[in-house]
Design goal:
The complex is a heterodimer. Chain A contains three helices and no strands. Chain A has helices spanning 11-35, 37-41, 49-79. In chain A, α1 packs antiparallel against α3 (49-79). Helix content of chain B is 72%, strand content 1%. The radius of gyration of chain B is 24 Å and the shape is globular. The chains are: A mainly alpha, B mainly alpha.
């Protein structure tokens, strides 16, 4: 809010912005994609895409997302010198 | 303990030897089976051997130090904590009931799979690392210190007890079910046998003992879950990797569903004879396009995710890591270890269904002679156990899909027999189910007993109690709560899964927003948190009561599995409105929140 062009964003501002990105991806895999589960399944005989996403695809995405978040947050902590010794 | 320093450094070797030893035991059992040892004896040995190992680890990890008892000395490496969390997390419901749920309810049920994994994104990003930095022993400890005052702490204890106790009865029920089946004793006794095993792991060593038994239990449960599915997939020729092969099987099942007239009416007289057991009536992959179906999927996912991020027995596992960074990484590892099982559950459900439905397979009994099916050994065994009932409703001598009534739990427990695998696999699966239920029960009992001993007794009732006295109180409470849980479980109040979903909704109604806003919103204050906890929990519980026992019709499809949809918004709104209407927290609290937002520096509180 109080950031102007001359003031670099603080560690917490950057952490918040990382959180928002993480949550946006989370919302996509947690909710949005399943809203289209029926469409992803396609017609009879085609690959069951909705089933695949709900039973495997999103879980793998969540795991990747957590490790991505952890790496980014650790980089951020290092950059601001606030990580543990 | 002279092993201690060396133990943490040698974890890989210790658990490597343990895993090889366990696999060796399984092979030994297989050889004994071939040599003609009876199934009952093999079942006994599986249950007895694994419980003895857990108890041994529990006894070796005994401690009289409160840092060890409450948070395992904060030295658990991220990967092992991930494994322990996975065992803590995956309950008897995940192990025994999840594949069955997918089998019986198809696509809509997979909302649980989504919710119970996606919640960890919230744990990693919103909560766990900050609580680790805070340095508390229990979840109410954070609420009590962040917001100040005994009332806030007490409210958090109430929510914790409601959520965890609901959950623990389901787990003791699960251990009772397995113990009763394998040891061939009445369910009511099985519950108490299960409880003794659970307490042997946690009584003497608290969190430290539970951590190392949970790692051991994870290894047993994951081997027990994966081995039969891989075996079945290969034996039945579906493919080397069941997870990939399952998608073709889904399509095959969808064709068979048409063949077997899935969805045809069940004869009321036959249903009456089958009692509470159900015939399959839902397609494997009916991702319905109705708005209501999409909404129900959405709400269930939301409730399970926010519940995951507020269940104290899960959050407290992240208090045991050596650093904030390790706590974060550990969440990722938890998810990996959880996914190993969760991604296998739909494959298991699909293969079991295909085994039963495909008329070209020897195991496919649907659509064939009723008398032949009735004479199968596994059918007789599970019928007499009350998990299965075949009723020839139309008297045509053919077993229709609508005449095959079952309890979903047998999908995991009976699949080895259905698919014609040797009995040793059934024993292994039973040991895995027991490990899953025991590890979760241990985590839950410890969460409750620690909250009562640390927050209620030490922080509120007798702040002068010395550490020895506190640990005695903690153990007495553990025993008492375990006994209460076993007593309630023996009354068989609800199916395993109903109760599990309730625990998530109690937790998210009462704790999610006080925890998250305590970290992310400095303006959140004591009055707001208390209003959020009491209001959310009361609204959720009142709604559950009204729709479950009060005869009220659920609003907008929000049934008893989803009552958090009522509790959560009430909690959020009350917390914001009341916080805004009352004074901002003092300078000291603001500084405390600032300090938990960076990993560097001392923990805020060292109890």
């Amino acid at each position: 809010m109080s950031n102007n062009a001359t003031e670099a964003p603080s560690h917490w501002d950057r952490s918040k912005s990382l959180l928002y990105k993480t949550l946006a991806i989370w919302i996509f895999f947690a909710f949005i994609i399943h809203w289209f589960g029926d469409a992803l399944n396609g017609g009879a005989g085609s690959f069951p895409g909705g089933y695949f996403m709900a039973g495997m695809g999103v879980q793998i995405s969540f795991a990747i997302l957590v490790f991505w978040f952890v790496t980014k947050q650790s980089q951020l902590d290092d950059e601001f010198g606030v990580s543990e010794d | 303990m002279k092993l201690e320093g060396g133990f943490i450094k040698n974890l890989g070797r210790v658990y490597g030897v343990y895993t090889l030893g366990f696999l060796g035991f399984v092979i030994l059992m297989a050889i004994l089976e071939q040599a003609g040892v009876s199934a009952e004896k093999i079942g006994w040995m599986f249950v007895g051997f694994t419980i003895a190992i857990y108890a041994l680890i529990g006894i070796l990890s005994r401690t009289m130090e409160s840092g060890q008892y409450y948070v395992a000395g904060r030295e658990v490496p991220a990967v092992y904590n991930g494994m322990a969390t996975a065992a803590d997390w995956m309950s008897g419901a995940s192990f025994i009931a999840m594949a069955g749920g997918i089998y019986m309810n198809g696509y809509p049920y997979m909302a649980f799979l989504v919710g119970w994994t996606g919640g960890y994104v919230l744990v990693a990003s919103l909560i766990a690392p900050y609580l680790r930095k805070f340095g508390c022993y229990t979840v109410p400890d954070f609420i009590g210190t962040r917001y100040g005052g005994n009332l806030a702490r007490f409210c958090a204890v109430i929510v914790l007890v409601m959520a965890s106790f609901t959950y623990v009865t389901a787990q003791i029920n699960g251990t009772g079910t397995v113990a009763a089946r394998m040891l061939d004793i009445p369910f009511e006794w099985g519950v108490w046998v299960g409880l003794s095993g659970i307490l042997a792991c946690s009584m003497l060593g608290g969190m430290r003992a539970v951590t190392w038994t949970q790692v051991a239990q994870y290894i047993v449960l994951i081997v027990a879950y994966l081995l039969p599915v891989f075996w079945m997939s290969n034996k039945l020729g579906y493919g080397l990797i069941p997870h990939i092969a399952q998608f073709d099987a889904v399509l095959a099942v969808q064709e068979l569903e048409v063949l077997h007239n899935l969805g045809a009416a069940v004869d009321p007289a036959a249903q009456k004879a089958a009692g509470g057991l159900k015939a399959l009536s839902v397609g494997i992959n009916d991702a319905s396009d109705t708005l209501m179906a999409k909404w129900k999927f959405f709400t269930l996912v939301l409730c399970m995710m926010l519940g995951t991020a507020s269940l104290p027995h899960v959050l407290m596992r992240y208090f045991t890591t050596a650093s904030v960074k390790a706590a974060r990484q550990s969440v990722g590892w938890s998810l990996v270890f959880i996914c190993l099982l969760y991604l296998t559950a739909p494959a298991l459900a699909t293969f079991t269904k295909l085994s039963l439905l495909d008329p070209n397979l020897a195991t496919g009994i649907i659509g064939k002679s009723f008398a032949d099916a009735q004479s199968l050994e596994w059918v007789q065994k599970w019928t007499s156990a009350g998990f299965l009932k075949l009723v020839d409703g139309n008297g045509d001598g053919i077993l229709q899909l609508q005449e095959f009534f079952m309890n979903g739990q047998i999908v995991v427990l009976a699949t080895p027999e259905i698919a014609g695998l040797p009995y040793v696999i059934s024993g292994l699966v039973a040991a895995g189910g027991l490990a899953a239920a025991m590890s979760t029960a241990d985590g839950l009992l410890l969460a409750i007993a620690n909250a009562l001993s640390h927050d209620l007794y030490y922080k509120i009732i007798d702040p002068k109690a010395d550490s020895g006295k506190r640990l005695v109180v903690a153990r007495v409470l553990l025993l008492a709560i375990g006994a209460a849980g076993a007593y309630v479980a023996a009354q068989k109040l609800t199916g395993i899964l109903g109760a599990v979903a309730w625990a998530f909704c109690f937790a998210n109604s009462g704790l999610f927003f006080p925890l998250v806003l305590g970290i992310w919103w400095k303006r959140a204050n004591r009055a707001g948190a208390i209003a959020g906890m009491i209001g959310g929990l009361t609204a959720g519980t009142a709604y559950l009561y009204a729709i479950r026992w009060g005869g009220m019709d659920p609003w907008l499809g929000i049934d008893h599995l989803r009552f958090g949809m009522i509790g959560m918004p009430v909690s959020l709104i009350l917390m914001i409105v009341v916080s805004k209407a009352t004074e901002a927290p003092d300078e000291e609290t603001m500084k405390m929140v600032d300090s938990i937002r960076i990993p560097k520096g001392e923990v805020v509180q060292n109890s």
